[in-house]
Amino acid sequence: MINFRELLRPARTVPRTRWTANHVWDISLSGLLILFFGLTILGMGGALVVRANLGNAPWTVFAEGISIQSGLSIGTAFFLSSCLVLLLWIPLAIKPGFGTIANATYFAIVLDWALGWIDSPTSQILEYLMLLAGIACVGLGSAIYMTCGLGGGPRDGLLMGLIKRTGIRIIYIKMTMDGTALLVGYLLGGTIGVGTVLSVILYSWSVALSMTLVSQIPLAKDASSLHLF
């Protein structure tokens, strides 16, 4: 039975569910279906944020900048930036999982697909509603795919690897990574604005609350946590 009081308490760990894999290459049909379901929601959420025209999240600003300068689609630019980030895994000796590869490829495909049919709102109120809906979808999609236990995305992996290697606090490393992506993306022509600020503030809360939601559904095994790497 769902504990509605607990739904408002952000999760501190990734919940272990019935579909959680034992290791990052432990692939099952149910795990794959849920993984791609989560990545689909994640990609559509990213597209909603872009179409809100209020400013993008740091890494989307980076991908948009590449897209503007190269003529590539935002999804393709996002894929290329993911490949670049994955190259940085090598000196940190981080091993990718199936979910890592799926995040880098399928997310980019869904992002382009959703941008192809989602139109920008006609009023500022609708822009903000679309932005918030996008942030909520990004949080929910992230929570669903992370509970599969098949490996985090390229940027999450780099973040965890740098923390393990340097011992520097997560907030400082994340701020450096996101700040660098944001600055370079902006210089390349990417869109920043109030949506960028709200994305930075609300993304983590959206993911944490969505983790709580997932942990409360009947399919959840127990209250144990899962480390991403």
Q: How would you describe this protein?
A:
Helix content is 63%, strand content 5%. It has one domain (24-217). It is mainly alpha-helical. α1 (29-51) crosses α4 (98-115). The protein has helices at residues 29-51, 58-70, 74-87, 98-115, 124-146, 154-166, 170-187, 194-216, and strands at 14-17, 220-226. It contains eight helices and two strands; from the N terminus they run βααααααααβ. It has a two-stranded antiparallel sheet with strand order 1-2. Residues 222-229 have low confidence and may be disordered.
Per DSSP E runs of 2 or more residues, the count of β-strands stands at 2
Distance between the termini: 30 Å
Given as residue ranges, the uncertain stretches (5+ residues, pLDDT < 50) are 222-229
Radius of gyration, in Å, reads 17 Å
User: Helix coverage percent of residues?
Assistant: 55-70%
**Which range does the strand content fall in?**
under 5%
* Total domain count: 1
SS content category = mainly alpha
Helix-strand sequence: EHHHHHHHHE
